[in-house]
């Protein structure tokens, strides 16, 4: 990272940023160009490992690519704010972001319910009751994060 002054390496600080994010973008290997897709996600920590959960339809390009190569990059960001420096007649954007890599696997049907509860918890504070009939027609994915780094820009000159 070029701007080491903006780098975040503290595990708990990175988790707090992830908890504030609404979308996780994953990049998959697709021959000539990477394939990037924004996804809703759930976050879980098990034995100091970050696990990200996603849901999907039962078919599609994303699933085909994961089946071929389950390595992925990810990115999420939040805390966007316009920073104006009137005295310098310039501006920038503030943000917090996390980028990293991981291995994606398909969650077996017997574990889908618990994985979907983790995903729902990210967006809905209390225990959300959802229609379990939908589990049969939902693919659930789990990414085990292998590495990640955070970056923040705030309004410090």
UniProtKB/TrEMBL annotation:
SUPFAM superfamilies on file: FMN-binding split barrel (SSF50475)
Protein name in UniProt: Pyridoxamine 5'-phosphate oxidase
Organism of provenance: Anaerostipes caccae (strain DSM 14662 / CCUG 47493 / JCM 13470 / NCIMB 13811 / L1-92)
